[in-house]
From TrEMBL:
Coiled coil stretches, renumbered: none
Species classification: Bacteria, Bacillati, Bacillota, Clostridia, Eubacteriales
Originating organism: Formimonas warabiya
Family: Belongs to the CdaR family.
Purine catabolism PurC-like domain boundaries: 8-124
Superkingdom: Bacteria
Domain CdaR GGDEF-like: 301-437
Protein name: PucR family transcriptional regulator
PANTHER family registered for this protein in UniProt: CARBOHYDRATE DIACID REGULATOR, DNA-BINDING TRANSCRIPTIONAL ACTIVATOR ADER
Residue ranges of every copy of the PucR C-terminal helix-turn-helix domain listed in the record: 491-547
Amino acid sequence: MGLTVRQALKIGKLKDAVVVAGYQGLDNQILFVNIMEVPEVTRWMKGGELLVTAGFAFKDNPNSRKKLIYDLAQKHVAAFGIKPGQYFSEVPQDMIEYANEVGLPLLQLPPDAPYMDFMLPIFEILISGQLSQLKRHEQIHNCLLEALLSGGGFLSICQALYDLLGKPVYILDKSGNIINYVCGLKPEQNFSFIDLTEAWLQIDQDLLNYPPNRSRRIKSEFKGQQHDVVLVPVQADNCIAGYLLVLEDGISLDDQGLFALEYAGTISALEFSKEKAVFEAERKVRGDLLEDLISENFSLEEAVIRRASFLNFNLNVKLAVFIINIDHFEKYVIYQTNHQENHIQEIKSYIFENVHHAFLSYPGGVMLHMKSNCLIGLIRMEGEGHEKVLRQKLQEIIRNIKTRFPKINISVGVGKPYKGVRNIKNSYEEAETSLKVEQYLNGGEKVVFFQELGLYRFLYELKGSETMKTFHDEIVGKLKQYDDQNHSNMVHTLISYFKNDCNLNRTAKDLYIHKNSVIYRVKKIEEITGLKFSNPEDRFNLQLCLKLQYLIE
């Protein structure tokens, strides 16, 4: 802890000193007091000194006086005091000019005061400040170490840091998701996960330039307002594991506060390492169990139910499987990443962590397993309430992944919920079917529940069969052939006619033609196909063939 030159001039005999030059440097910090005895004194200066002298070393040499002033300023000496009497009657005018030029505070000391009258009071204050600083460091160390050893995890670290700083504290994972926080604000003032996520998109662009375990002041926008933020990237196991974030609005953190924040970063690194080890072990166990469940690789149901209970997961409720798939991942790997394994693992790790975090508050939790280019999840789903929440979370996950990796396409298939561990395989196969049908018909990038596929649930299984193709060609094939030969739009008319519930007026409006033209085309379709719209069975066959057309094409 330093003392400014301005403050020192109010202590003891220095009250009688006169500032003759370098007024702009009066806020320089004094860290030490020393006496100049030899001309080459600057070689031992480290910066922050109050240097005092009688002037013997430069009394007869104007050039050495100039060099001395310039060298002291370059060494960031806090101030230079000259005591008149034995060698000078007053501070030389040339030194005043040089000191003003470089901004070095130049003091004319009282001639009748011993050096110790200047030095001892300042030393007492500096030593007292250093002692206070050491005590504060010890307090910070003990407080944060106790938080770590208490077993309270990140919440204890947040609380300890909040108690030390009195400012809102957040701990985030490396993707910017809030892990824990203590803010002491009213609910309407607190920053939610959404607020921080939006702000994180601004911060995220510069994170690579921030050194790990060092504090960095930045500005970010929360709720439409600019806020001062201090950020510490936390490095664990040679990579950035997360971030400590403090809202600094109002009074800025002093050096002690920044030290506490950086030390908390070191403590957090230990917690990140511990959590990572636990997470990886549990992830493997959960992944192995889920692989056994979806492949029905078990003999006794009671055994897998017991295994799941050790992981705090209940298999005795209605469960559904979802699959988050990276569409055309092989092409992405070849053309976008150039087979860079680090980037591929980064993508998969981000998806896993994002999904894991999204379902932390979901009732019953989630069981996840990364398999090739997709992430498989097993989750509780009982009733429309769970289905609605699940859909929202999956859509949010797709948005987050697309924001981080814009060139990746993500699709999600969800199987029906079942009760009973032997039905988990059925839900998994339905999720796979949902994915395949959606990718086949629409190109993917949606969340599709199996029960939403309707007729396509089983039509997809017939895709490519000769029976399907023959049935299609017998009906719609004749219309397509007629269109090709006569440059007409019978197939398109049929699609519009059914889309508009066989209403002639709405079909005419949809096709921008006269109602009579629609009547003519409907009769022509009946003539070509040999089917009647008045016959329910014929209408069904026509509609079925239009759906088959998507799969055949």
